[in-house]
Write a structure and sequence with these properties.
- By secondary structure, the protein is of the alpha/beta class.
- It has a domain of about 160 residues: Nitrogenase molybdenum iron protein domain (Rossmann fold), CATH 3.40.50.
- Helices cover about 30% and strands about 15% of the residues.
- A 5-stranded parallel sheet has the order 7-6-5-8-9. Strands 13-10-15-16-17 form a 5-stranded mixed sheet. Strands 1-2-3-4 form a 4-stranded antiparallel sheet, covered by helices on one side.
- The protein starts with a helix and ends with a strand.
């Protein structure tokens, strides 16, 4: 057992012996679908003994799962220091066990079947776990290409909760979901507080802080823990992992290592992935030389046009240009783009092969859960001589003409 695991177990037992579950930072807790009576007997700490870490979580650094015969305990690590627990969730397996309730401290006693999924990424993972009929709300229908979600929205079976920049709190409370999955940066937003007060569970995830494609895809195991589908999630992820590793090996056999840069500027700022980001890892695994691969940040770098041009003007490939559909559109936004070597040589590829009526690509909706598809595309683009060893055609990308 490593030091982190010892610390987590010690902290949990200490809190439980005090009959108090404390959640640092943004204090997000898992509410039960029904409120608990304050007269429930004090917590029997025996139920929390012999918790064992789920060794199937191999890549993610932002969550862990512990199990015993009585319950599951999920930890989130949303702080800058990934050793800090920023939220804890307790899912009781035996409904006869009653834990001591405290103010804003709740546990899950039954499988919640009315799910509000406020990210197309989470919705896609839940759909792959067979939960489409249990999803009753999403964030914004404009982001979706999933035909089942679109049909359920059309018939009124799915509600939309985040059409504007902020969540519609009143609507969320009215539809009364059993659980809400959303994302955040570790802050307890006022809207989330109101939902808590309505005794609706909110789980704020931090998958976007992961640094590798397999780590983000592994979050399907996190969602599976809430709906008792861990075995299915393991099976899905194992297949994805094998395909990804096989493709990674194929890419490593390439004789060349082309230089690559990504994104376009917004206003005066050009946001590019840091050298430790999952986007940079994709390019590394595709045997490419990402222009900022020496950078040590996992988030975005905020650069000027001049800074990007200085480093990327002679790069071989240019990828991921937002919603741009052609070279003409690219040039209409910024004439200086024509000065890049990749523009002149026509090596421009964008992840917009399949888009909905609003222009949004399924790349972000399904590509996070299926990094093997993205890696296959990158190998086809960057190493066309390996085409006979990968997919026959691009899945998410198309060449800009």
């Amino acid at each position: 057992m490593n030091l982190k695991e010892v610390f987590l177990k010690f902290t949990l037992m200490l809190k439980l012996y005090k009959h108090y579950l404390y959640f640092p930072l943004f204090s997000l807790v898992l509410h039960s679908c029904n409120s608990l009576d304050d007269n429930i007997p004090k917590l029997n700490t025996l139920f929390f003994q012999n918790l064992k870490r789920n060794s199937n979580v191999k890549y993610s650094k932002r969550f862990s799962i512990y199990n015993n015969r009585y319950m599951k305990v999920l930890y989130l690590f949303g702080s800058a220091d990934i050793n800090d627990t920023s939220a804890t969730y307790i899912i009781v397996k035996d409904s006869t066990i009653k834990l001591l309730p405290r103010k804003r401290t709740h546990v899950l006693y039954k499988r919640c079947k009315k799910i509000a999924s406020l990210s197309s990424v989470y919705t896609n993972m839940l759909c792959e776990l067979g939960e489409i009929n249990n999803i009753i709300a999403i964030e914004n229908i404009d982001y979706y290409t999933n035909k089942h979600v679109l049909e359920k929205y059309r018939t009124g079976a799915i509600s939309e909760l985040v059409k504007a920049p902020k969540m519609d709190i009143e609507k969320t409370i009215k539809i009364n979901p059993d659980i809400v999955f959303t994302f955040g940066m570790g802050k307890n937003e006022p809207g989330v507080e109101k939902i808590f007060q309505a005794n609706i569970p909110v789980v704020v995830t931090v998958d976007h802080l992961e640094e590798t494609p397999l780590a983000r895809a592994e979050w399907i195991k996190f969602f599976a823990a809430f709906i008792n589908k861990e075995n299915l999630a393991d099976s899905i992820f194992n297949s994805i992992e094998k395909k990804y590793k096989d493709l990674q090996h194929i890419a490593s056999t390439a004789q060349t290592k082309p230089t690559v840069f990504t994104e376009i500027k917004y206003g005066e700022i050009w946001y590019v992935p840091g050298g430790k980001s999952f986007a940079a890892t994709f390019l590394k695994d595709a045997h490419a030389n990402y222009i900022w691969n020496k950078n040590t940040q996992s988030g975005s770098l905020h650069l000027s046009f001049e800074e990007v041009f200085t480093k990327a003007k002679n790069a071989d490939y240019w990828l991921n240009m937002a919603m741009i559909n052609s070279k003409a559109e690219l040039l209409a936004q910024e004439k200086r783009y024509s000065e890049f070597k990749a523009y002149k040589s026509g090596q421009l590829y964008n992840n917009i092969k399949h888009t909905n009526s609003k222009g949004f690509s399924d790349y972000w909706e399904t590509g996070i859960a299926h990094p093997e598809r993205v890696l296959s595309d990158l190998i086809l683009i960057l190493h066309p001589n390996l085409k006979n060893k990968t997919s026959a055609d691009l899945y998410y990308y198309k060449k800009l003409e």
